Amino acid sequence: MKQQSNVTPKLAATGAGLPRIERFVANLMIRWKAARTSREQATATFDSERAEILRLVEGQDAVALTQRVLIKRLPGLEDSSRYWSLLMVVDHLRIVNRDIAKVIAVLGKGQLPAGEASIAAVKPSSQVTPTVLAEFDQGCRDFVAAVAAVEDLKTTIKFPHPWFGPMDAATWHFMSGFHMQLHHQQMRLILAGMETNESQTHHSVS
């Protein structure tokens, strides 16, 4: 989709959520797949996504990393998240992975995490810099370590997701990789959008 130059698109409010049917289906799918995915498989997916995401940004210059591109809305992606840069996606993942790691660690101790999860609280900064790449990478490694430290992820105590309700540590673990896959797709659309914009610019100049 072509980016609108110098125009900020009108999007739904941050935290508005997903269409009701889409949220219902996503909830069922996450829980069904989480129940059939081993700890090892979930960790492997998470780590594979970390590597792929870092590979996508490798070699990109500062302009490309920070260019915001309006994309189509992917299933599972909030409307307010459609106009991000590559670094904004990475920053969002850094924040979410950090927060989920904390939730898993606390649930693993048989305790209920304080406060409540908030979609609006994990949105990225539009001013994020390339330093976030190393922070994301380290955060992913910290996440894997936090999961490994929990003996049994099928915790009795559950912590509610804002859209999907109460989840045990195993479901939060699975969802982290699922979430990375979604934003991996988003990054690919951003890159494709940049290529389209560049091609259209060259065509108009010629």
Describe it.
The structure is a single chain. The chain is mainly α. 57% of the residues lie in helices and 5% in strands. The protein has 6 helices and 4 strands; from the N terminus they run αααββααββα. The protein has a two-stranded antiparallel sheet with strand order 1-2. Strands 3-4 form a two-stranded antiparallel sheet. Helix 1 packs across helix 6 and helix 4 runs antiparallel to helix 6. The longest helix has 37 residues. The N terminus is likely disordered.
Q: Please indicate the percent range of residues in DSSP E strands (runs of 2 or more).
A: under 5%
Number of strands: 4
End-to-end distance: 21 Å
Radius of gyration from CA coordinates? 18 Å
Largest sheet: 2 strands, antiparallel
Spans with pLDDT under 50 lasting ≥5 residues?
A: 1-5
Morphology: globular
Features:
two-stranded antiparallel ribbon, mainly alpha, globular, single chain, 206 residues
Question: What does the secondary structure layout of this molecule look like, with pairings?
Answer:
Layout (H helix, E strand, L loop, with lengths): L19 H16 L3 H19 L4 H5 L2 E2 L12 E2 L1 H23 L22 H18 L10 E3 L3 E3 L1 H37 L1
Antiparallel strand pairs: 1-2, 3-4
Could you provide a short overview of the structure?
This protein has helices at residues 20-35, 39-57, 62-66, 86-108, 131-148, 169-205, and strands at 69-70, 83-84, 159-161, 165-167. By secondary structure, it is mainly alpha-helical.
